[in-house]
Structures are given as structure tokens and as C-alpha cells.
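sry for the spam today, last one i promise. C-alpha cells for design, 486 residues
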């Protein structure tokens, strides 16, 4: 079955896809079709959205990708990962983007796109008076050990130290990319939205993409378009390209897929991960947190400490201590108490993973390398961040607030952490790099060898920023929308 032709197909209705579809459909003469595998619950205020997807106080997992055998922490829903994230809007360091090479991706060139994305999101910006008692203690503790406190944690010269994070939050609502971008575009005749439609593969002919084959209501449908944009994220975009015959020959051969071109798709997955660090608060702090929650949302992550490992040069950072709060019973609307976090996160790990197909069937999720402390350097750095978190929790400022350590446990050393395997690891879930610029795409996002096939999501980032990727993904989408509109 063949559907109607479009000028542009945007495949993936997550953070990047919502932004691309909204920007490109501003031209009334350009027909844009946005395809998303998950449901569309309508615009904000339509009363269709599940409460757990709106509640900013804890990341939900109800819309994670699953195929019955494997589950991946990526949201299958309009808005994508912005619909289930921790609401962090963090920019990386200027040097992170310098490593992306030429083509206009250096930090100063991206600043207008960061700013544009933030204007669209209108994020909540916490003041020091808004801090929960745990983060207020962290600020004092940083002073004790000589770490600065930043008024703007995203400033280009804000290196080591604590800072409150702008958040994609409205009241207690997680303000996702669908609300911020797509709601303004929904009524345009130039935009068609196809939810609950799974992308199988790109149709390729004579060095061009002619459209995509999708599965809709159990039926295979070919959608035709002049321009095809992949916005399915580092897992999904890599999988679609591989099913389309673009990728390593050995990988395609083992699934019986005819190769269209040899590119290292899925070969260099990057992410942030680390060691979960948790403490039980004292009754005194529990009472203070409940009182604070009466007038401001206790979102999971209000601030971070940027830190340097022992071999990190000055003027940069490579570690985070995530100073968060979680309901002990997992119920943000009705917590019976809270757990304190100071998780030790590697924002420049040596770890590298891959995305591989388990089957050419689009309903079968790809195989993604699990995080691992297979590098002695990564483990050593993560343990340094654990110790920093312990110094903060054991400071005079935190006296009377911390009862005892829950994770990893005061007796846990590096070998114990390693033996725990995946149970000893927590992650930010910021996958990037599986279709990196300079390797799989050029510096305008076009897949090498294909003039009208574009990647516009986290998968094209050749290095990982030292912060949350949500805001950077929006900046990438905004810039590519400009490049395509020229």
C-alpha cells in the first residue's frame, strides 16, 4: 500500500522530531509528515495524557521501548524522551562542541540555537530561595570544601562547583517538546501527524531516499517524500539505517540484508553513567522536605556539582555529583519519605558501546551494549565522585540531615562495585554517536552518499557533551531546520 506523497518525512516524534516538524511546517507550501511509533495523547490540556508522563517529580518508565523480550529506556510516545526525562536543561562545555569539527558546530555558533530552544521551552529557573533543604545543605558544604556556587550553571565559564539547573517544568508538569513545539503547529494544514506508526526502513534508489516503509495498524505502507529526516534517536535511527542496508557489511550479512552502502552505523555509542549513591535522611530532614513540598515541586534533580577527577585538567570538568531527591516508595504524588542522592556520574567516560540488530523485523528492538566498568580509569574516576559525594554528605553543613548510606554502602570498594555488574551502575540515559558526523553523516546531517537523507538527532553527535543532552538535541534540530530551510 502506498500513502500520499509529502515534501518532508520526519521519522521519529521525539524531542528532535517535534522541533523539526514544527519548524519545517511553518512554510505553508511545504507538506510535512511526522511519524511516531508511540501514541499521541493530544495537546496539553486535552486531558488525554497519563498522569505519570506529566508529573515532573519522577521519571516514569511506562512508555519505555519494549518488544516482550527486551526493554530500552527510551520513550515511545509523542515528545519522546522529553516526555519522561528528569527535566534537566544543561549545556556542555564550549570545548565539547569544538570537537565536532568544522561545519558551524562550534559553541559560539550553537549559542543562538540553545537560546532559541530555551525561549521555546520557557524553563523554570530556580533561585537559591527555592532550594530544597538537601540542596541548601549542599551549597554550604561546597563552601566548606572550596567549591564555588554558580548563579548560572550553564555559563561557558561555569566549571567546577554547584549550580541549580533550569528545568523543562511548568508547575508540576513535565513540559515536553510536544507541548513546547508541536502544540503550536498541530492545526497547520502543512503538518500531518502519524502516531502509532512504526518505521521499518528507508526506501533507497540511485543514491536517493524516495520515502519510507512503515507499519500502521498491522499493514505495511510506503510513504513517499522528497526529503527524509531521521529523528529516532541513537538507538532507533541506527536501527532504521541498518534495516535499510546502510551499515557494516558483516552486520547486514548476518541478517540477510542487502547492503546499499558501507558506513559505521551503530559503531560508536557514547553515554553518561556512574555509581548510584543514596542516603537515608534523618527524621529532621524528612520533615523539612515534606514542608518544602507544600509550596514547590520536589523534582528529582534540582542541581548538580561539577567536579574534576584526579587527571582532569583545570578549566573543565569530567564528573557530576547529582544532588537529587527520590520518593522512597516510588510515588511522587504520595511519598511516605524521601531518599537523598549524590550519584557519581562520568560525563566523559572511556566506555564505548554499539547498537546492533537482533532481527530485521522492525518490531524487534536492537541490541544495545550494556554499561560496564571495563575501564580501570572509568571505575577510578567514578569512585572519586563517590568520595566527593560522601564529603558533601558528611560535611558540617549536612550534620543532622543524613542518617546513613544506602548505596553503594560504606564498605563497598571498586571490586565490589565491579562484581555487581549492571546492579552497581546507574545512567543518565544520554545515548549519542551511533551515526556520527564525519563518519556516517556530513556536517549538515546528510547521510554520506545520500543527498536527501538527513539525520537530525543525538545519534549524529561525534562526542558527548558534559551535560544533559535534551537541550543540545533541540539546538541540533533547530540548526538543521535552518540549514534545510536555506
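last one done:
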Amino acid at each position: 500500500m502506498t500513502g500520499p506523497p509529502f515534501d518532508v518525512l520526519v521519522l521519529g516524534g521525539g524531542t528532535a522530531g517535534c522541533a523539526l516538524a514544527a519548524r519545517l511546517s511553518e512554510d505553508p507550501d511545504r507538506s510535512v509528515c511526522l511519524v511516531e511509533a508511540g501514541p499521541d495523547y493530544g495537546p496539553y490540556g486535552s486531558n488525554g495524557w497519563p498522569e505519570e508522563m506529566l508529573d515532573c517529580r519522577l521519571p516514569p518508565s511506562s512508555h519505555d521501548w519494549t518488544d516482550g523480550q527486551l526493554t530500552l529506556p527510551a520513550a515511545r510516545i509523542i515528545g519522546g524522551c522529553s516526555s519522561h526525562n528528569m527535566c534537566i536543561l544543561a549545556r556542555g562545555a564550549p570545548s565539547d562542541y569544538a570537537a565536532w569539527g568544522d561545519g558551524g558546530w562550534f559553541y559560539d555558533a550553537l549559542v543562538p540555537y540553545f537560546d532559541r530552544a530555551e525561549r521555546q521551552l520557557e524553563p523554570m529557573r530556580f533561585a537559591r530561595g527555592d532550594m530544597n533543604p538537601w540542596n541548601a545543605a549542599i551549597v554550604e558544604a561546597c563552601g566548606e570544601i572550596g567549591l564555588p556556587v554558580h548563579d548560572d550553571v550553564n555559563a561557558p565559564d561555569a566549571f567546577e562547583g554547584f549550580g541549580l539547573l533550569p528545568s523543562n517544568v511548568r508547575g508540576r508538569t513535565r513540559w515536553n517538546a510536544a507541548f513546547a513545539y508541536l502544540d503550536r503547529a498541530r492545526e497547520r494544514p502543512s503538518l500531518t501527524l502519524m502516531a502509532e506508526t512504526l518505521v521499518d526502513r528507508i526506501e533507497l534508489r540511485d543514491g536517493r531516499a524516495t520515502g519510507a516503509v512503515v507499519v500502521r495498524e498491522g499493514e505495511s505502507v510506503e510513504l513517499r517524500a522528497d526529503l527524509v529526516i531521521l529523528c529516532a534517536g541513537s538507538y532507533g535511527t541506527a536501527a532504521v539505517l541498518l534495516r535499510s542496508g546502510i551499515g557494516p557489511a558483516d552486520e547486514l550479512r548476518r541478517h540477510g540484508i542487502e547492503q546499499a552502502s558501507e558506513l559505521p552505523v551503530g559503531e560508536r555509542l557514547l553515554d553518561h553513567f556512574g555509581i548510584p549513591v543514596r542516603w537515608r535522611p534523618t527524621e529532621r530532614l524528612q520533615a523539612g522536605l515534606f514542608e518544602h513540598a507544600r509550596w514547590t515541586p520536589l523534582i528529582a534533580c534540582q542541581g548538580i556539582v561539577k567536579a574534576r577527577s584526579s587527571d582532569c585538567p583545570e578549566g573543565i570538568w569530567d564528573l557530576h555529583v547529582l544532588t537529587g531527591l527520590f520518593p522512597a516508595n516510588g510515588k511522587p504524588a504520595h511519598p511516605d519519605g524521601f531518599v537523598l542522592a549524590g550519584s557519581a556520574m562520568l560525563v566523559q567516560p572511556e566506555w564505548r558501546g554499539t547498537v546492533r540488530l537482533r532481527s530485521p523485523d522492525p518490531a524487534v528492538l536492537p541490541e544495545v551494549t550494556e554499561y560496564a566498568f571495563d575501564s580501570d580509569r572509568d571505575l577510578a574516576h567514578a569512585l572519586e565522585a563517590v568520595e566527593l559525594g560522601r564529603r558533601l554528605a558528611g560535611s558540617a553543613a549536612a550534620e543532622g540531615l543524613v542518617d546513613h548510606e544506602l548505596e553503594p554502602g560504606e564498605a563497598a570498594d571498586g571490586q565490589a562495585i565491579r562484581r555487581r555488574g549492571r546492579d552497581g551502575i546507574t545512567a543518565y540515559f544520554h545515548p549519542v554517536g551511533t551515526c556520527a558526523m564525519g563518519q556516517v553523516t556530513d556536517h549538515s546531517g546528510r547521510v554520506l552518499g545520500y543527498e536527501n537523507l538527513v539525520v537530525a538527532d543525538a545519534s549524529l553527535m561525534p562526542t558527548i557533551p558534559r551535560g544533559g543532552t535534551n537541550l543540545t538535541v533541540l539546538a541540533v534540530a533547530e540548526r538543521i531546520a535552518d540549514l534545510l530551510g536555506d
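The radius of gyration is 22 Å. ok im logging off now
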